[in-house]
Each structure stands twice: as C-alpha cells, then as structure tokens.
Amino acid sequence: MKGFLVLEDGTTLIGKAFGAPATVYGEMFFHTDMAGYEKLLTDGSNAGQIVLMNYPLIGNYGFSERDKGVHMPKALIVKDFSVDPSHFECTKTLSEFLVENNIFGLAHVDTRMLTRKIRTAGSLKCMLTTDNDFDVNKEILNIKRVSGHVSIPEPPYRHIQGDGESVGVLDLGAAEPLLTQLSADGYDVHVFSSVTSSEEILQKNVKKVYLSHGSADPKQFSQTTKTLRGLMGHVEISGHGLGMLVLARAYGMDTCKMKNGHRGANYPVLAVETNKVEMTKQNIGYCLVNETITKEVTITHTNVNDSVVEGYRVDGNTGISH
What we know:
The chain has eight helices and 19 strands. By secondary structure, the chain is of the alpha/beta class.
C-alpha cells in the first residue's frame, strides 16, 4: 500500500505504508539510535510524536511479549523494515506491533534527506496518509495549524507494594522505566498524576519524590510546579528528563525548545565535579535557559557538544536530563 508524507514546506514523498495506516498529523524529529527500536517505540518520551529513524534497517529482531508501553508515538518513518525478524524472544514483527498499538509506519523514503531538513530547520510538522486523493495545498494549511503541544492523559493513582522506603513518583507521561527500577530496588512506590496536590502526596508519608520523563513542553505543568513548591523542604525531590525541567521551573528557571533536541545514544556529558565525561542515551527536546539559572543552583552536568545544562543540584534536590 502506498503511503504519503507531506511536510509543512510542501515536500511530498511517496513510500510504503505499513503498521496501522491512517491519516496522522504531528511533529517529526529524528533519532540516531542504531539499536533498541523496541524501547524507543515504548518510551513515553516520544508520545504523540512522529519518529524518523536514522539507522536504515529497523525491525530485524522483532518484538517480544515484554515490549509494552502506555504512551507511544503516532508514527514511525524508516528507510526499510524487516518482515522476517530473527531473535529467540521474538513473538511479533515490527508491522504487527505497530498495528496492535495503532502506529502508522512509512518505509522506502529518503530518510537522509529528511534528517538534513530537520537539522537545518528543526522539528518539522507533517502529515502521513494512505489517501491517494489528498490535496497538497489544502494539507499544507492543515499541517501548519498543527499544535506542537502534546497532551498526555492523567494517569490514576497507583500503589506498588514494597518492603523498602516509601517514595512517590509524579508521572509526567513516561513513568514505567522509573517504576520498574524503583520496584526492583524494593521501594514502596506511590504513583501520582502531574496534577496531584502536595497535600495529597505528603499524606502518603513518602520520603522522596521522583519526576518522570515525558514528551510534553515543561511550560504546561503549572499545577506540577505549584505542587513541587509545596513539597520543597519536606521531601527530597529528583527530576529526570522532562521532570528535571519541570523542577527547574518550580525554582523560577525558564525552559525553551531545542532546535533538534538530544535524541539518541552516545551523547557526551561532562560531570563537572569529577571532570569526567560520561556517554549517555538521551531523548529530550527542551532545555534550560542558561540566563535564568540563579547563583543558588549548582551545575553538575553539561553537554560537551552544545554546553546545554544536563544536571543541577539546589537545596538538596537534583535534576538530570539522562
């Protein structure tokens, strides 16, 4: 089946549609990972987005029953995809996974050209469709009206019983990996939505609060910043990815959208206090505005490539982007 990609600048490409064909609109960004596509597609940091893979062949080891996610991208664009994966845990193909999770797939398009466009212009709004009769000029107008705002449904309160210390997690859209780790470490985990009040959280007698990754603009979490201000001085707070930026906003710092974001593996990050470089895996599209960082904030990590702040500490609370 033919699939069509239309960018906001009028570029139109024809490829092969697979997965769950439909008509979808959104922002497209590129990801540089050479492996781990199954984690990428189940990472809530990509929720509501259109993901372009730089690595040309995707799907060659399929998916296992363990590969599950809650918030997923709208579409996946690849150069080519495997229809005959090989792995001892494989239970389904890439196309079958996309169908199950209502994700549009598009292959056999020039992903290098698309990547160059994004590197020049930043994330691009676009449309994907299998409709042969679409009007390009009309669709360009529709695409330009697409909001870059990603809305994530508020999750219900959850309690994951553990024998260890009681901790809270503010779920900003991608809490599952964090929950898996905390649960494996034996913590008694209370999961809250981003709009939960500080009073409700403190009633659970948690000792620490973690803010999860996510895909949304940190500026949309005004209620969360209010909650964090109510928690400061009562519990230790740690923000990860999007959570790092929301915590920074609670301290009065500002955030902005990066041109291309940090999406992929092997991002070099300088640990300022040890002067050692750590190689990290990242998936984030926003950063701190350096001019708004106050003298009370200790910068702990910076990106070697572009000097973006990757980690900080203030009042005993920490933020880390990776």
